[in-house]
Amino acid sequence: MDNFGRQAVAGLRVLLALTVLTGILYPAAVWGVSRLPGLHANAEAVDTTSIGIDREGDQWFRTRPSAATLPASGGSNKGERNAEYDAVVAERRTAVAQREAVAEDRVPEDAVTASASGLDPHISTAYAELQVPRVARARGLGEDRVRALVAGHTDGRAAGVLGEPGVNVTALNRALG
Amino acid sequence: MSSTAAGLVQVGVLLVALAVVHRPFGDYMARVYTSAGHSRVERAVYRVARVDPESGQRWGTYARGVIAFSFVGVVLLYVLQRIQSVLPFDFDRGAVPPGVAFNTAISFVTNTNWQSYVPESVMGHTVQMVGLTVQNFVSGAVGMAVAVALVRGFVRHRTDRLGNFWVDLVRGTIRILLPVAFLFAVVLVATGVVMSLKSGVTVDGRQVATAPVASQEAIKELGTNGGGVLNANSAHPFENPNGWSNLIEVFLILVIPVSLTRTFGTLVGDRRQGYVLLGVMGTLWSLVLAVIWVAEAHGLRPSEGKETRFGVPSSALFANSTTGTSTGAVNSMHDSYTGLGGGGAMLNMLFGEMTPGGVGTGLYSILVMAVIAMFLAGLMVGRTPEYLGKKLGRREVTAAAVSILAMPTVLLVGAGTAALLPSTKGALNNPGEHGLSEILYAYASASNNNGSAFAGITVTSDWFQASLGVCMALGRFIPIIAVLCLAGSLAAQKKVPETAGTLPTTGPLFATLLGGSIVLVAALTFVPALALGPIAEALL
C-alpha cells in the first residue's frame, strides 16, 4: 500500500499540473482567440439565430414541437412503438392541420415530431410552405413576398453535401419583424 | 442532390480526410511515445510531481500508477463538484448532490462521460473547465498510455520494463491531445460553436443557457469522451450548429483511434500489421453504419429526436461513429431510433468498443481480441499460438480472457439485476421491448465506457447512480489491469522466429479470423438479451 500511496501523491501532483494546463490555460486561450474580430459573427461569439424558440401567434412561422423544458435542452426520447406518444403526435397533426387550414395528410412529419435538442431552429421547406398563406394573411403581405423571405432564409447543405437543408425559423421571423 | 447521395459523398469526404491524416498523425504519435527527449513544460511537470521520467516501470508499477492516478482523479472531481457553491461561475447552481457527484466523477475519469445530470442547471463553468475538461484530456491520455504499454510488450524482449506511465500520460496530454484540441476548438468557434462565460442569452424572450462550449467540445470528441457541455449534447445548436461542425466532430471522434493503428504498425516495424486491424475495424464500422442508416431512413417517425440540419444520413453517421468509439456524444436521440437502428448502436458497444474503439482502448481491445483469435486458431491446428513473435501461453491467454469477459459480466449482472428491481419500471420512458432496450443500453454504455444513452430512462435513483458507477469502474479497470499483465508477460519473453508453420497476421485469413472472433464473442454473449430488446422490436 505504501507504493500505492506514493503513486497517489505523484498522481495528485501530475493531475494538478495538468489541470493548470488543460483546465485553466487551455480554455482561457480558446476564449481569448474566440474574441478575435472576424472569427465569429458577433462580439459575444453567440449566434442566437442558431436557436429555435416557438413563437405563438398567426404572424409567426412556427418551429417544430419541442420536448425541452428550458433551461434543459433535449428530446422526447420516445420510441416509434409507443402508443401514448402516437396519440400526442396525432393531436399535434390535428392542431397543425386546423391552424394551417389543410387536410391532415398534408402536414409534414417534422411538424409533429420533437427535435433532438428541443431548440431546432430549422423546419423543412414543406412545413414552411404550409405556413406561408397563414403568415401572409396575418401580416397583410403578399404570399409571394413571404415566399421570397422563406427562400432567403433557407439554408442549403453546407458545401452542397453536409447535412440537410432547412428553413431557419428564427432568422425568418426576425426578418418579418 | 438526394439526401442519400449527399450523405454518401459526406462519408467519402470523411474517409478521404482520415486516409490523408492517419499516416503523418499515426507516425507522429509513434514518435511521441518513443522519443528520448522531454520538452521544457514536461520537465516542469515531472519536477512538480517529483517523478523520474527516465525510470522504466514493471507492469505492476505501471498498473498501480494508472489506478492511483484515476483514484485521485475521482476524489478531486467529486470534491470539486461538492464545493461548487463557493466556486466562481456557478450561477447559484449550488453544490452537486452526492449521488450525481459520485457517478459523474467515475464517469469522467473512466472516459465514459455518462451524464445523470442536466448541465444547464447543475454544472457551473468552473467545474466544467477545471474538472470535467481536465478529465476529458487525461482519461484519454490514460487509455493511449495503456495501449502503448501493450504494444511495447510485443516490441520488447526479455525485459520486465514497460515504460513510464507518468511520461506516457504527460506526453499524450501535452504533445497529442492539447495541440490538436486547441486547433480544432478554434476551428469549431469559426463554424459557430459557442464559447461564452455567461450563464445564458435571451432568444425571443426565453433564456437559453450558454457555456464555454468550444474548448470542451473539441477534446470531448478528440478524446472519445462524449459528455455534453449542454444537455442535448452535440444535438444542441450551440455545440454543433451546422453541417461543417458536424463533419468536423465526427472526424475528431475517429481520428485518433484510426491513426493509432498506423502508430501500432510503425512501432512493431510492420505497417501491414496495423492496416489489417484497421481493415477489420473499418469493415464492421461500415456494416453497422449501413444497418443504422437504412433502418432510420425507413422508420415510422424518422425526424423524431433528430435535428433538421442533420437529417437521417448525418445522424446515422454520428451515431455509428460515437458508439463504435466509446465516445457517447450524440447529435440525435438514440432512444427515438428504430429497433434495428438503436440495436446497431448498441451492437457497436457490445462488440467491446473496437470498431475502431476509444482512444487507446480501441487498440488494446482489438489486440486482446487478436490474442483470442490466434488462440482459437492454435486450438484448431493443435499448435502453440503466436502473435507478433510472442508465444501465447496460459498466462497470456488467461489475461486476454479476463479482459474480454469483464465487460459482459458486469453488463449482464447489472442489467439483469436492474430488470428484476420493481422500481425500474417507473424509471423507463417507453413500454415493452423498447423499455428493456433502455436498461440494456444503459448498462452496455456504462460497462463499455461509452456514455451515450437511450436517454429517456431516469437514472437519478441511488440504485442507478451506484450500479452504473460500479459498472463504469469495473468495465474500465479490470481490462486495463489484465492488459498490462498481458503486456508484462509478453515483454518478458524472447522473440520466437517465424517458421513455415506461423500463421501470417497480415492477410485476409487473419482478418476474417479476427472479425469473426469479435462478432462471435458478442453474439454468444448477447444474442439472448438482444432478442428480447432491439431484435424483438425490429420484428414487430
TrEMBL record, chain A:
Single GO MF annotation: P-type potassium transmembrane transporter activity
GO cellular component: membrane
InterPro entries: KdpC
Keywords: ATP-binding, Cell membrane, Ion transport, Membrane, Nucleotide-binding, Potassium, Potassium transport, Transmembrane, Transmembrane helix, Transport
Keyword ATP-binding: yes
Transmembrane domains' residue ranges: 12-33
PANTHER family noted in UniProt: POTASSIUM-TRANSPORTING ATPASE C CHAIN, POTASSIUM-TRANSPORTING ATPASE KDPC SUBUNIT
The name this protein goes by in its record: K+-transporting ATPase ATPase C chain
Organism (species): Saccharothrix tamanrassetensis
Organism lineage: Bacteria, Bacillati, Actinomycetota, Actinomycetes, Pseudonocardiales
UniProtKB/TrEMBL annotation, chain B:
Keywords noted in UniProt: Cell membrane, Ion transport, Membrane, Potassium, Potassium transport, Transmembrane, Transmembrane helix, Transport
Lineage top rank: taxon: Bacteria
Any one Gene Ontology cellular component term annotated for this protein: plasma membrane
Database matches in InterPro entries: KdpA
Membrane-protein topology: Multi-pass membrane protein
Pfam families, alphabetized: KdpA
Cell location: Cell membrane
Residue intervals passing through the bilayer: 62-80, 137-155, 176-197, 247-268, 275-295, 363-385, 397-421, 463-488, 509-531
Keyword Magnesium recorded: no
Molecular functions (GO terms): P-type potassium transmembrane transporter activity; potassium ion binding
Subunit structure: The system is composed of three essential subunits: KdpA, KdpB and KdpC.
NCBIfam families for the chain: kdpA
Function (record text): Part of the high-affinity ATP-driven potassium transport (or Kdp) system, which catalyzes the hydrolysis of ATP coupled with the electrogenic transport of potassium into the cytoplasm. This subunit binds the extracellular potassium ions and delivers the ions to the membrane domain of KdpB through an intramembrane tunnel.
Family: Belongs to the KdpA family.
PANTHER family in the record: POTASSIUM-TRANSPORTING ATPASE A CHAIN (PTHR30607), POTASSIUM-TRANSPORTING ATPASE POTASSIUM-BINDING SUBUNIT (PTHR30607:SF2)
Protein name in UniProt: Potassium-transporting ATPase potassium-binding subunit
